């Protein structure tokens, strides 16, 4: 595992296709992903995912003192290697953008000219002068008032009273720029155009991680500025294909019922909980965890959302691997260690991850992992919680879960080949095992 040379980046590039077969027009965004490197660099993929998940989980202040600041702190801080990047276009005529799909934040932004402080991107920067439908939003506009950190632009470089924003993410990622509106186009052939979408033109931006393929972030959170809120959809879903593969994934808005019919028996539904302190996040009620036949002795209060807004469990597309609070993580690790019956690799060699060394070319038994939510059971397939790889002939099995802060976060690694539906009308989340490449 010392041979961690390759940066493995899994990105999802999303040419959108709109299917309009049903009464409620479904916007279907197809997500393709590919490895940046030809082979997976042993444990590197997992270690990078773990670092980001940890960084992201650290976004919450332990003490309520910093709560006012953290109101804008978003979960998308962890731009993990397993990013799901949606292709859309902005402006008239449309200019392509590639935005990280983030259910943990609301603002959608892309880098814009003159871009005095932008990270490199392979696509051209968005040029608002080339769009006939582009308009600045003033600071007294409703979308501007939905942001926590804004000021009124009044310099000779800016139109008077322009909404200037700063949007922070917990891991030091940040975008600063101007709030605007313009037409968004979903679909490569421009078949679905939505005028007047509020979005940020990022002028000074930093991402924890970028391989230059993405140009910004698509906010799919619960706040009024997010894309689902602005589009007024009743629901959206994502279905992520295997992180380590290259098959296309799908994101859908206003998804028809019949797509769920196939696996109806296996559909699990749990309430979405609201946390007034962090209103953008999709909170779930996690009640317990079983490892094999062992129910971890975690008091339910350990998972509870506390009155000061700390704790609780969120589901987040912007995080790669799931994190649990330290005490829960230790119980989980110990239960695995006991049931795996394989030697554990010293954690100073694994970046703190729980890994076991296995006989060469073996496929050892791994205890089942089940997350028990209110009214719903997430029975994770093996590939959604262990990461197996070979390094210099040795075989390793690692738990793709790490220790985070007081809040638990269900990351996208755990959601592979699962169709996850956010029912915004009824405040419910459903999930069902699916072949995401065949949706
Ligand atoms: C980023 O990742 C994508 C998808 O794997 C790849 O096609 C692209 O070449 C990478 N870009 C850079 C600059 O490494
Ligand atoms: C961006 O690209 C330019 C030209 O390729 C390069 O000189 C510069 O170092 C890059 N900046 C970053 C932050 O990677
Ligand atoms: C932006 O678009 C305007 C109008 O087409 C053009 O004059 C200008 O050169 C463009 N800026 C850049 C940096 O491409
Ligand atoms: C900017 O707007 C304010 C308030 O509308 C106005 O008082 C001021 O004169 C304007 N300044 C310029 C340079 O237009
Ligand atoms: C999603 O929302 C649309 C329109 O609001 C509705 O017709 C459809 O039944 C919903 N789909 C599911 C799976 O709940
Ligand atoms: C890890 O710790 C063990 C002792 O617990 C030590 O022998 C070993 O050298 C350490 N390995 C690394 C890579 O630091």
Keywords:
439 residues, 36% strand, protease, Plant_Aspart_Prot_A1, four-stranded antiparallel β-sheet, disordered N terminus, single chain, mainly beta, binds 2-acetamido-2-deoxy-beta-D-glucopyranose, glycoprotein
Structure description:
One of its GO terms (molecular function) is aspartic-type endopeptidase activity. Residues 1-24 form the signal peptide. Belongs to the peptidase A1 family. InterPro entries: Pepsin-like_plant, PEPTIDASE_A1, Plant_Aspart_Prot_A1, TAXi_C, TAXi_N. Keywords: Aspartyl protease, Glycoprotein, Hydrolase, Protease, Signal. With 439 residues, the chain is mainly beta. Helix content is 10%, strand content 36%. The chain contains six helices and 29 strands. The chain has helices at 44-57, 67-70, 142-145, 227-231, 258-261, 326-340, and strands at 10-13, 16-19, 26-35, 82-90, 95-102, 109-111, 135-136, 150-153, 162-168, 174-186, 192-206, 216-219, 235-239, 249-253, 268-271, 282-284, 286-291, 294-295, 313-315, 322-324, 355-358, 369-373, 376-380, 386-391, 394-399, 401-403, 408-410, 418-423, 428-433. The protein has a six-stranded mixed beta barrel. A hairpin with a 4-residue loop joins strand 28 (418-423) and strand 29 (428-433). It is globular and about 70 Å long. Residues 1-24, 30-41 and 59-82 have low confidence and may be disordered.
């Amino acid at each position: 595992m010392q041979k961690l040379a390759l940066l493995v980046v899994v990105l999802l590039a999303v040419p959108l296709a709109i299917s309009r077969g049903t009464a409620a027009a479904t916007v279907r965004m197809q997500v393709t992903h590919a490895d940046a490197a030809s082979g997976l660099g042993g444990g590197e993929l997992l270690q990078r995912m773990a670092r980001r998940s940890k960084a992201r989980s650290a976004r919450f202040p332990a003490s309520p003192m910093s709560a006012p600041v953290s109101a804008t702190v978003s979960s998308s801080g962890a731009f993990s290697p397993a990013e799901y990047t949606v292709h859309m276009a902005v402006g008239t005529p449309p200019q392509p953008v590639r935005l990280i799909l983030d259910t943990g934040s609301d603002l959608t932004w892309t880098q814009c000219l003159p871009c005095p402080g932008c990270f490199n991107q392979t696509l051209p920067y968005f040029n608002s002068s080339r769009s006939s439908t582009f308009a600045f939003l003033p600071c007294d506009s409703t979308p501007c008032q939905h942001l926590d950190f804004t000021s009124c632009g009044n310099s000779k470089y800016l139109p008077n009273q322009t909404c200037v924003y700063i949007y922070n993410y917990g891991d030091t990622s940040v975008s600063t720029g101007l709030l605007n509106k313009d037409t968004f186009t979903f679909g490569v052939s421009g078949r679905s155009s939505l005028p007047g979408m509020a979005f940020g033109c990022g002028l000074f931006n930093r991402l924890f991680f970028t391989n230059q393929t993405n140009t910004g972030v698509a906010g799919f959170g619960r706040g009024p500025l997010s894309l689902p809120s602005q589009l007024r959809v009743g629901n959206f879903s994502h279905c992520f294909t295997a992180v380590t593969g290259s098959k296309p994934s799908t994101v859908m808005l206003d998804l028809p019922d019949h797509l769920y019919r196939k696996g109806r028996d296996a559909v699990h539904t749990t309430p979405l909980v609201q946390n007034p302190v962090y209103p953008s996040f999709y909170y779930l009620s996690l009640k317990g965890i079983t490892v094999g036949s062992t129910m971890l002795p975690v008091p339910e209060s350990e998972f509870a959302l506390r009155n000061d807004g700390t704790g609780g469990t969120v589901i987040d597309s912007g995080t790669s691997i799931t994190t649990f609070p330290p005490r829960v993580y230790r119980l989980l690790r110990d239960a695995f260690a006991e049931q795996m019956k394989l030697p554990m690799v010293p954690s100073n060699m694994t970046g703190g991850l729980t890994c076991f060394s296995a006989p060469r070319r073996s496929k050892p038994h791994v205890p089942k992992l089940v997350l028990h939510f209110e009214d719903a059971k997430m029975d994770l397939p093996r590939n959604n919680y262990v990461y197996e790889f070979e390094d210099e002939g040795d075989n390793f099995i690692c738990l793709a879960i790490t220790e985070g802060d007081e809040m638990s976060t269900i990351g996208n690694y755990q959601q592979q080949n699962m169709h996850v539906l956010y029912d915004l009308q009824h405040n419910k989340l459903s999930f069902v095992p699916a072949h995401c490449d065949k949706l």
